[in-house]
Amino acid sequence: MGATFMSSSILGGRYHVLNHLGGGGFGQTFLAEDRHLPGNPRCVVKQLQPRVADVVSLESARRLFDAEAQALYQLGDHDQIPRLLAHFEEGTQFYLVQEYVEGTLLTEEIYPGCQQSEAEVIALLRDVLETLAFVHQHQVIHRDIKPSNLIRRQRDGKVVLIDFGSVKQVSRQPIEEYGQVSITVAIGSLGYMPNEQLAGQPCLSSDIYAVGILALQALTGLEPKRLPKDPRTSEIMWRELAPVSDGLADMLDRMVRYDFRQRHPDAMEAFDELMMLINPPRSAPAKIAPALESDAIATETHQMWLERADELFQQNRFDEAARCYEQVVQGDPQCVTAWFKLGMVYEHLKRNDAAIQAYDQVIQQQPEDYLAWLKRAKVLEQMERYEGALAAYEEVLRLQPDNYWAWNDRGYVLEQSGQVDAAIAAYGRAVQLKPDFQLALENRKRLLVALKRVEDLYTLQHYSDAIAACDLALDDTPNDANLWLMRGMALENLARLPEAAIAYNHVIRLQPRDHVTWFKLGTVLEGLKRPGQAARAYGQVVRLQPRNHWAWQQRAKMLEQMDQPREAIAAYQKVLQIQPDFEPARTAYQRLLNRTLSTTTTS
């Protein structure tokens, strides 16, 4: 349907479409009014248009809008984030209804040729970072901060952050069909996306980069792709384009660092630094930057090739993108950005050896670039060159020891290379870092079951898997009493008491003098409301261990339930002979004795 919606269209049985606001390849946005509420208040309806109608594409579309709705719901009611009003599916279309914000997009303020003052940019940063800090406190990455996703609200002039369609929870990673991290889908807008986001590994500081680029765009009047970069370090060289104070310049430099670890980790820290600039302990005069240097023409040519390559990459025209990136690195072999993106293009083209060489160029110039090591590891893994992949993952973990995904991926490579114990340890480390990391949990369980590591699975409380491992092992050694015992304990923990009783009976048949199993059998029979059988099991325990006061106590309770008071009193007496200060037995004994005496007196 898209922009062809007529003004008479009614969505969800209540939202009357007024006009088309805009849209792109994935969906359209409409201004509508809610016919079910008094006054017919206006709202914004976002429609996602799956490009094809197959089941997989529809499910992907559903997940995309579900993610946005969940994020908006989680963020709740913030004054500078549009409220979520509804979220529904109609036919094969998906709709999100949000509060309508009357105002103008920041594209009306930030555009090529328009340079804002330092004071204006500081005010913009304060407004955006304060809202983004709230988003980051909820562990949500926006991933698409740019002028067209910011609205200057008419009623108070505040900047409202819109379009959470690219949100990402920090605790989640996009998973492909076979459990691998997706490294091919980069959600966001070129120019505002840092390197790690382009590689499919966004973090909170990726949003900081986008806000920094937004500020540089406002200060310099240049589009992001026109901002010159140092060909050696890939850092943005902007200071000569706009005269600003040293404090703000230093902050913006940090916000747009190539390496995310050198940026502010989140919007809260960036906002705090900005507030220190606004209210410093001691004021300092602004420093005017010198004029632009004479090599700007060479930089512009370099940047044109890079921009063209980025556009082709975004359009999935990988052969042409490769040729453009190759032009960049031929002219400037130290451009790590082009080498990194060239490696990704080669991956898409299945030119794995060339991809490794490209990532190696990045690593030679920036040995601490964990993303280049990670990409190198993934390519080597796909080529089944496991020794090299392991070495690359070790470098990733040296740089990021708490990267649970890298631990999981290292476990997979160890498993493929036959180092099973080391693989289990790597999966375990991933789970230790992130206890709800399902992929690593399943990988570790799968290996432990295959190796029949019953006790490990039981200790980890994977009871169903422990039973599966027991069954595999019992196929080989059906008379292993310890396996039957572990099976019974796992079944008991799953409250599958009849099966647990069968397992414990197997143990007793093999080891009649196993007092521990007799006691466990008594407990299970007690849970099954079979006091007579439970009393006999506890009786076997006290026959084998006459001074086991717990077994005497449980036997006495069963005898009492069977209405055998004299036998129960005798059992309680046994408990008190062994443990005179055992209060439960003393109380039960006295109660039962009084009841027996009362019955005798009445008779």
Coarse shape: elongated
Based on CA atoms alone, the radius of gyration comes out at: 34 Å
Structural class estimated from helices and strands? alpha+beta
Q: In what order do the strands lie side by side in the largest sheet? A: 1-2-3-4-6-5
- Might you state the CATH topology name of the domain at 103-282? Transferase(Phosphotransferase), domain 1
Estimate the strand proportion.
Answer: 5-15%
The span between the termini is 92 Å
Helix content: 55-70%
Average pLDDT, all residues? 86
Largest sheet: 6 strands, antiparallel
Low-confidence stretches: 171-185, 282-297
CATH class of the domain at 103-282: Mainly Alpha
Please tell me the CATH architecture of the domain at 103-282 by its name.
Orthogonal Bundle
Total strands:
11
CATH superfamily of the domain at 103-282: Transferase(Phosphotransferase) domain 1
Number of helices: 24
